[in-house]
């Protein structure tokens, strides 16, 4: 029977080569690094960036009480459902480096897509805002009047899109964050790697960064990288299901996809008055007459509109629009976000993160959440 828990996904045993250990130790115990290190991990697809970042987190947690983690990989998020950019503060070791687990981020934005390519500018603005937040909250800034209680290191994990526009985006992130350490993971197919050296810096500044180049962990007898391909789409679906599993108490016996799909169809949704919220489509324009149709049976980001100059609205979770009553002017939304937090939400963000198909196929129910071209009224 299909299970949605990510722990069930088959994963190879993790092997930490010596150069990986040394790299992580250097970052954590670099005696000259005060304030704490800001380490960015980059490299080709499937080279092991996420696995190394998790290992680095664990090593940093041996020295620091807490470590901040900036996740910039919207397609394969670490602590949130897909489509988010987030800053999470971690205070516990990850016992199993193969399993991602959901955590409540300190701050996050809903980008609403699984790749930055549709809107690189918005993507970069969110990352810059999250990094600024980290600096404000967890770094002693020169000349700042606001005291910071504790300083934490930061780990930045990046996506494996390192060619073309993906490369330009990575360079912009590196220039903005200016990490104390950059870990570049190389694979044996050299054409797929990032350029050698500190590729994002001008000649004059190349000495000022600690660049650590390591190789992907697994190699065959010819020293060719053995890369494990992930089923990224399946992993995203599992992530979304694990997120909505939180609508129910953990002691409730819901372990299979079928059980979750059934439980969601019969779960009482929140009622949200349409007049109390704004609706924003993140990557497309929808005629005003079609807005409610476009929302029905979709996943939306639950955000709090912001009045800052950048107009970036922090997001506090995801919801499934279960149905819309156009007479009562109500949206019915399923979400694990508690009511007290939900009350702050005044903006629904719609992107391209979709309800996993397996949640839409529930035996005994005709396409739950959906009625063709009709908005349910009761
Ligand atoms: N040190 C390792 N030991 C065993 N398996 C590993 C190791 N590093 C990576 N892998 C496996 O290789 C696959 C890709 O690793 P990972 O997700 O860390 O790469 P990534 O560079 O973050 O990928 P992406 O570019 O898609 O974000 C995963 O299945 C992971 O378990």
Automatic annotation (TrEMBL):
One GO cellular component term: nucleolus
UniProt-recorded name of the protein: Polynucleotide 5'-hydroxyl-kinase NOL9
Keywords: ATP-binding, Kinase, Nucleotide-binding, Nucleus, rRNA processing, Transferase
InterPro entries in the record: Clp1/Grc3, CLP1_P, NOL9_C, P-loop_NTPase
Location of the protein in the cell: Nucleus, Nucleolus
Domain of life, per lineage: Eukaryota
A GO biological-process term: cleavage in ITS2 between 5.8S rRNA and LSU-rRNA of tricistronic rRNA transcript (SSU-rRNA, 5.8S rRNA, LSU-rRNA)
Domain Clp1 P-loop positions: 43-245
Every NOL9 C-terminal domain range: 265-356
Species of the source: Vitis rotundifolia (Muscadine grape)
Similarity remark: Belongs to the Clp1 family. NOL9/GRC3 subfamily.
GO molecular function, one term: polynucleotide 5'-hydroxyl-kinase activity
Alphabetical list of PANTHER family matching this protein: CLEAVAGE/POLYADENYLATION FACTOR IA SUBUNIT CLP1P, POLYNUCLEOTIDE 5'-HYDROXYL-KINASE NOL9
């Amino acid at each position: 029977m299909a299970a949605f828990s990510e722990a069930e996904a088959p994963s190879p045993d993790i092997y930490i080569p010596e150069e990986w250990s040394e790299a992580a130790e250097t970052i954590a115990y670099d005696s000259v690094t005060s304030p704490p290190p800001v380490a960015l991990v980059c490299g080709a697809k499937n080279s092991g960036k996420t696995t190394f970042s998790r290992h680095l987190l664990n090593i940093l947690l041996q020295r620091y009480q807490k470590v901040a983690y900036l996740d910039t990989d919207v397609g394969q998020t670490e602590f949130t459902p897909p489509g988010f950019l987030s800053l999470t503060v971690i205070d516990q070791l990850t016992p199993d480096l193969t399993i991602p687990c959901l955590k409540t981020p300190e701050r996050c934005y809903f980008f609403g897509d699984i790749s930055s390519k549709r809107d690189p500018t918005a993507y970069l603005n969110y990352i810059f805002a999250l990094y600024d937040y980290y600096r404000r909250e967890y770094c002693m800034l020169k000349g700042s009047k606001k005291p910071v209680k504790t300083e934490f290191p930061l780990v930045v994990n990046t996506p494996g899109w390192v060619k073309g526009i993906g490369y330009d985006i990575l360079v912009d992130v590196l220039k903005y964050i200016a990490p104390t350490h950059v870990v570049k993971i190389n694979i044996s197919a050299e054409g797929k790697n990032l350029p050698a050296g500190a590729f994002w810096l001008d000649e004059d500044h190349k000495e000022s960064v600690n660049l650590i180049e390591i190789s992907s962990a697994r190699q065959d007898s010819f020293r060719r990288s053995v890369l494990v391909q992930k089923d990224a789409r399946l992993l995203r679906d599992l992530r979304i299901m694990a997120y909505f599993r939180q609508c129910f108490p953990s002691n409730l016996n819901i372990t299979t996809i079928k059980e979750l799909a059934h439980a969601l169809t019969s779960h009482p949704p929140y009622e949200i008055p349409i007049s109390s919220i704004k609706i924003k489509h993140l990557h497309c324009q929808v005629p005003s007459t079609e807005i409610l149709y476009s929302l029905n049976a979709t996943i939306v980001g639950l955000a709090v509109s912001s009045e800052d100059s950048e107009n970036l609205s922090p997001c506090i979770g995801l919801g499934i629009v279960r149905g819309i009553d156009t007479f009562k002017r109500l949206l019915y939304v399923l979400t694990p976000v508690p009511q007290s937090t939900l009350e702050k939400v005044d903006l629904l963000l719609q992107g391209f993160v979709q309800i996993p198909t397996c949640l839409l196929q529930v035996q005994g129910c005709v396409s739950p959440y959906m009625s063709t071209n009709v908005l349910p009224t009761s």
